[in-house]
Structure formats: structure tokens, C-alpha cells
Design brief:
By secondary structure, the protein is α/β, with parallel strands linked by helices. The protein has helices spanning about 45-50, 90-105, 110-125, 140-150, 175-190, 210-220, 235-245, 250-255, 275-285, 290-295, 305-310, 330-345, 360-365, 370-375, 405-410, 415-425, and strands at about 1-10, 20-35, 35-40, 60-70, 70-75, 130-135, 155-160, 160, 195-200, 225-230, 265-270, 285-290, 315-320, 390-395, 430-435, 440. It is globular. Bound molecules: zinc ion. GO terms for molecular function: guanine deaminase activity; zinc ion binding.
């Protein structure tokens, strides 16, 4: 039994899918028993209760630092961590120039293992304890990531990226091998500890109809598994999809007609979706991973989060870093960028103005909203009894090494202001400690 004392701030699953309410306990306690949270409440009450009991718990007093839920990254490519911040072109050129050569290096198992090790260490450094991740076309890239994640106790969902056209020959599989290799990996890893498999066609342009149908068959055999792919990221991409799939109603229909649009289908970006597409996605509670640093970096456009939810209330939305298109693994940086995108949309003055995202909403989409988008909110996303013991201790004081943040935080008069400052100014330096599945990481 361990007690973590500090300023507890968490979304609560008692609120509906539209966020805004936070549980805010300035001097709070989170009690963990192995990998599970057993109590959350005011520190004085919780500590008094446990000190009277026979087994004395280990107490970690984090002072005035924030205790928030482990962050959820709904869209990230681990093979691209080494090519993050490669300058340049829009999506399709960028894939050819940087992404495909980086992924081709994963034919080397040693490279895959080293990258998986570095990537999972960095997730923890940035406070991410749950992530939906793309591997490469090579099955051993999936083994490498799952192995590294399992060693660290992380909740990771990943799959072999499937591509059978419009990519370099060395990165192509076929409809048959996409299906058989995905099935074999799923059988090996799905449900092991905190690991889950995700069916992972990269995006429509790199899969033939036959490959999408083969993955649709697999999805039909495993109705509960996550499906991840990209959707409606960039205007040039959407035009290309229209040429490649002339019989489809629209981009969403390319996936829908083979059975890949359903609950726990997580679509990266969704920047330019039509009302018909939003309606369809919302009707089955499919998910969009909003990746603002990537969309801004590649000039893909502004995801209209509030308007999308207005059109499709059933849609589930979480934040994704989309590294290497995204420019930071930090959920704080992603949230800060999501704020700026919402600010630009709110200021665009189309007559139906919506407010930019609040700090509470930004925290929600970084945690519980993301967990709902991945269909893992029964386990993670908020600090509540019965959920996995994934905690992030956030430090906005001088000891973080971020003097500008500390200087600003000292002037904050509310929890919302402090969260906002952390998101606009913070990065991995603000992550003081991380508890992954009940196990605190080493002090930094
Ligand atoms: Zn992506």
C-alpha cells in the first residue's frame, strides 16, 4: 500500500462525454495497492484512516505538486521518433522523403529493439502511460515494442502497419500477409498484461481494396479489437483517395464498406471531415485522434473539435502527438497547441463562435477523453478507485528547471490557471515522477 500526497486534479468518469468538471483537492491523497488505485480523497481524512490500520503504508509526500492521471496518447508512430522535426513539405512528400526511409531501417531487429526501448523510456519521461502506437510493416517491430512496454508496465496498443502499394517495395506486404501476420501477432500479444493489438492499415492510399477487405475480415473475427488508421488529414490526400477509390462515397466510406468503421476505430486527424462522415463516425462511437502539433507542422489544417462534436455528439475524441509528424511527445505541449488551434477557430468569426478549449477540457482530452477514444476508460484516464495506478506528478516550481514556468505559476490564483500555464509553458521538465501501474519511476 502506498499513499501519494499532493494537489490532486483529475477528470471524473461521473461526468458525461462533454468535459469541464474536475475533481480538485488542493491537499489530496491517492492510495495505491499494487497496480490499482484504492482511495482518492482529502489527505487528512485518508491518512488518518490508514494510520489507524495495522499495515502502515509507504507515504510519498509530493508537497504542492499536482497529481494527475497518466496521460493518454491516441496516435503516435514509434519508428518515427528519430526523424521528429524533419523540416518540410506537406504530408505526401514528407512521407516519401523522411518517413519511409526511417521505417525501412526497421528491417534490422536490433534497430527496432533499441528504438522501442528509447521510445518507451521517453513516453514515461513525458508522463504518457497509455498509448496507441504505429509500428512498421515488419512483424518484429511489434514484438520489439510490446516487449519494451511489458518490461515497463505500460498500457500499449499497437499493430503491424499494413501497406501493399504506393510505398517503397521493401515496406510492402500483401493482402494475404497483412492478414496472416496481423492475426499471428494478435494471437501472441492481445491481452497479455496491459497490451492490446490494433489492426493497422496505414491509410487508404497505401492499401489496395483487397488488403482493406482482408483486414475487414480480420476485424469481423475480432469485433472488440482496436482499428487504427489515418483519415482526412490533408486536402491533397483526400483528392488522391477520391482518385484511388472512385466507387466510395467519400474517404470514410473507403474504410466503412469493408467493416473498419466501428467503436474503437481510432482515426488519426479527421481535419476535413464532411457532415456525412461525422454523422457516420458518431453513430457508431468511432474516435478521432486530434493531433494539433502535427497538423500545424505539416500545414494540414485546423481540426474543428467543437463543431465536430456538435455535428456528431457520439464521436469520441482524444489527443495524439503524432510523432514524427508531431513535434513533441509531451501531452502538455500537445494540449497547449490544441488550445491555440481552438483559439484560431474561435477567432475566425464565422458567426457561430465557440469558446476556445478550457484548461479542464484540455486535461480531459489528454486523459479520460483519450481513454474513452481508445475504449480503455474502465481502466485508465482518471484517478478513481478501481482504476490502474497510473499517476503523473507535475512540478511547476523552480525545482523543475523551468524558471519561466515557475515564475508564472507563482502568480496563478486558481487550479485552472496553473494547468493552463503548465500546458502552454511545460514539457517533460514539469514531469517530476511517474507511477506506472503502481510502480513509481526513479527520481530524476
Ligand atoms: Zn500518424
Amino acid at each position: 500500500m502506498e499513499i501519494h500526497l499532493g494537489h490532486v486534479v483529475t477528470p471524473s468518469s461521473g461526468t458525461d462525454a462533454t468535459p469541464g468538471a474536475l475533481l480538485d483537492i488542493p491537499r489530496g491523497a491517492v492510495v495505491t495497492d499494487g497496480p490499482v488505485i484504492v482511495t482518492v480523497g482529502p489527505a487528512d481524512e485518508v491518512v488518518a484512516g490508514y494510520t489507524r490500520s495495522a499495515a502502515s503504508p509507504v507515504v510519498h509526500d509530493h508537497g504542492g505538486k499536482l497529481i494527475v492521471p497518466g496521460f493518454v496518447d491516441c496516435h503516435v508512430h514509434y519508428p518515427q521518433i528519430g526523424m521528429i522535426a524533419s523540416p518540410g513539405e506537406q504530408l505526401l512528400d514528407w512521407l516519401d522523403r523522411y518517413t519511409f526511409p526511417a521505417e525501412a531501417r526497421f528491417a534490422d531487429l536490433a534497430h527496432a529493439r533499441a528504438t522501442a526501448s528509447f521510445f518507451t523510456d521517453q513516453l514515461i519521461c513525458h508522463g504518457v502511460t497509455t498509448a496507441l502506437v504505429y509500428s512498421t510493416v515488419h512483424p518484429h517491430s511489434v514484438d520489439a515494442l510490446f516487449t519494451a512496454a511489458r518490461e515497463r508496465g505500460l498500457r500499449i496498443i499497437t499493430g503491424k502497419t499494413c501497406m501493399d502499394r504506393n510505398a517503397p517495395a521493401e515496406l510492402l506486404d500483401t493482402p494475404e500477409t497483412a492478414q496472416s501476420q496481423s492475426a499471428a501477432l494478435l494471437e501472441r500479444w492481445h491481452g497479455v498484461d496491459r497490451l492490446e493489438y490494433a489492426l493497422t492499415p496505414r491509410f487508404a492510399p497505401t492499401s489496395s481494396d483487397a488488403q482493406l477487405e482482408a483486414l475487414g475480415e480480420l476485424a469481423d473475427s475480432y469485433p472488440d479489437v482496436v482499428v487504427q488508421t489515418h483519415l482526412s488529414e490533408n486536402v491533397g490526400e483526400i483528392g488522391w483517395v477520391g482518385e484511388l477509390f472512385p466507387d466510395a462515397v467519400d474517404y470514410t466510406d473507403v474504410y466503412d464498406r469493408v467493416g473498419l468503421v466501428r467503436e474503437r476505430s481510432v482515426f488519426g486527424h479527421g481535419v476535413h471531415l464532411t457532415d456525412r462522415e461525422l454523422d457516420r463516425l458518431g453513430s457508431v462511437h468511432a474516435s478521432v485522434a486530434h493531433c494539433p502539433t502535427s497538423n500545424n507542422f505539416l500545414g494540414s489544417g485546423l481540426f474543428p473539435l467543437a463543431a465536430s462534436l456538435h455535428t456528431a455528439p457520439g464521436l469520441r475524441i482524444g489527443f495524439g502527438s503524432d510523432v514524427g509528424g508531431g513535434t513533441s511527445l509531451s501531452p502538455l505541449a500537445t494540449a497547449g497547441e490544441a488550445y491555440k488551434v481552438s483559439r484560431l477557430i474561435a477567432s475566425s468569426g464565422d458567426g457561430d463562435a465557440v469558446a476556445p478549449l478550457s484548461a479542464a477540457e484540455l486535461l480531459y482530452y489528454s486523459t479520460l477523453g483519450g481513454a474513452r477514444a481508445l475504449g480503455v476508460d474502465a481502466h485508465v484516464g482518471s484517478l478513481e478507485p478501481g482504476k490502474d495506478a497510473d499517476l503523473v506528478i507535475l512540478d511547476a516550481t523552480e525545482s523543475s528547471g523551468n524558471a519561466v514556468l515557475a515564475n508564472r505559476a507563482a502568480e496563478c490564483t486558481s487550479t485552472e490557471e496553473l494547468l493552463f500555464a503548465l500546458m502552454l509553458l511545460g514539457d517533460d521538465r514539469a514531469v517530476d515522477r511517474v507511477v506506472v501501474n503502481g510502480v513509481p519511476d526513479a527520481p530524476r
